[in-house]
Amino acid sequence: MLAEFGHFALLLIVVTGFGQAVLCSPLWLRSSIRSSLLGPATVLAGGSPGPFSDGPGNMSVRLPTQDLPRQTSPYLILPLGILVLAIIAEAGLLHAFIVSDFSLPIVADVSHSSTPLLFRIGAAFTPDGGAMVLWLLAVSLVNVVLAIQLFTPEKSSYAQDDDGSLYHNALSVLGLLIAVLGLATLIDADPFLRMAVAPLDGRGMNPQNQDVLRVLREPFLYLGLAGLAVIYALTISGLLDKKFDRRIAETMRFWTIMSWVSLGTAIAINAYRSYSQQAWGNWWYWDTAENSLLLPWLLTTALVHCRAVLEKTETLKGWTAFLGLSALAVGWFGVYLTRSDLFGPLTETLMKSGDSMTLLIGFCVVFAGSYYLFWQRSDNLGEPRPFEPISRESSMFLNSVILALIAAVVLIGTIYPLVLRWLGGENITVGGPFYVEVLVPMTVPLLLLMGFAPTLRWRQDEVWLIGRRMKLAAILSLIIFLFVSIRFIDLSPAPLIGIGLAGWILTASLSDLWARLWRQPDHGESKYRNLQLLGPRYLSMTLAHIGLAVMLAGGAASSIWEEQIVVSARAGQSIQAGPYNLQYEGVSLLAGENYATRQAKFILYRHALPVTELYPEIRYYPIRGVETREAGIWHGRDGDLHVSVGDRADDGGRVVSVRFLPMMTWVWAGMILMLTGGAISIVTRIFLRFQKNGVSAS
User: Fold this and answer.
1) Could you list the residue ranges that cross the membrane (predicted)?
2) Does residue 153 form part of some domain?
3) What tens digit of pLDDT does each residue of 622-652 get?
4) Best label site of 4, 60, 119, 423, fewest CB within 10 Å?
């Protein structure tokens, strides 16, 4: 019965989304029906032209400031209603998976009565319909938050807006997106359709997806895409009103950082899954599912920097608006690619149902209209005060352009096999070698500029001043690069350059922080006070840059010093890998919740002292008839140790694969530092909204 409630809730979400789009639209704001329902409107003093007037002397409608709480209450009720309906739909779907209601095809296809409860819940997020319901829930949640943000007069810069059309337009666009996504869910992959005759049991979940990290990744992914939907709505609102200025940038601040952190968390989870699964030891494979995560994150990273420039100097209006539209566009298109059946190598779950045609049609209609509006408003997005080539604006603009070019290369590499197939060519895959060869020359100037950007002045700077500020960082990074290059002169230059650039970013960030703390006597008497006056945005940016340097150094170092050993081992045999010694103890046959496993036992020693025990496995899932290999991984201070077991060798021993990856822990620590920097900015921003006093948010 709950499934029927969920289906009805989906239908109501579509209707209510269109209702929000209409009630908040400019046409409704000018209509006589609205005036009779919400009270008379006021006229701008002197008959000055407004965004809905035909020219000078005509009247423009605006909301009376004194009646703002009464006027805005309908616009808060609608988002709350949509959120309640989305919760009902998600609850109905989760209930169907929890109780194993196999009369729903979505449950029968990817679940089984023997599947553990946690993975049954996770299975509700992975099929087409389940993922779309989760996306709808995330967009409905940010819809409510945006309504509260925009309609709270004492906390919103838009409260003083002359006509209130900016926030109404944003909610109208967001309501339209909700309606389109709801239609795509119902038409492409309705998760609540029932079969006439229910099977006795389901086909079971894909064993590759029976992973806690996979369950956690989906909410972060769709929360990030929902944040991009808010950015898109605010961008369209500013273009419609011809007011793409500092106030738009201020309102976008929270949403850009939130989307960046959410998408970055999804990328980090996906990278660790790739790293840990099957003991492959690599953490990025450049397949369609991974690239669909990377594309919106790259453009959101570019948007974070351009939005800061727009807020500070009201420049880069056109480029910021373009990124605000494109970030959601590539995210939406990535969802379509991973949910369609266009690519053969995709996992079974991602290819499960339908061709997502409605999602594609909605994408074409929404973004064709968006880019047409952007083109129409391009004359209003000029730069009022141009900045000099040597300035912080210039460096941040160049960084954002390079990030956009990197995203373009990733997009081309992702869809090229599909284009080739359409042209009658053979089926190919574009892998890591292509991306490394093309992206490394583009990434090097990006990382060089990252070291300079925080130290540059706004509007204009002098070369000799930059050299004086950066000389310490340049000397230290050059020493690091020369030492590593001489020590490993026979190796490929790519990882050596990576370590040198990591040293450049790290030393540049730390030297700039040092200068701001200890070389500014007017900042206060104590260094703690200096740290306060730097502001959370600067601290979060510095932490993110340091995290990137640490991650880059760890990835480059692990590729230089990696060791891989494959042996045929017998019980009691020792295997040396780096500073560690593994003693193989044999294999045991055990039973899991929905699988049978051959579990090997290894005792890990370091300097003849026991450290821990590792248990790599070979699991067999009888429901799907699939065998998987689970690695045993040790994260030590010297590096990571991967251990996996295979079948018996010809000599009767067990095939054992061991990989030692030095400094791999730095990769995960760097990712955590980057995300922590973004999280600090978000938490501080929320805290400061409720505090009248304290440190400035800038």
Assistant:
1) 6-29, 75-98, 132-152, 164-187, 220-240, 252-272, 292-310, 319-337, 357-375, 396-418, 438-458, 470-489, 495-517, 538-561, 666-688
2) yes
3) 888 888 888 888 888 878 888 888 888 888 7
4) 423
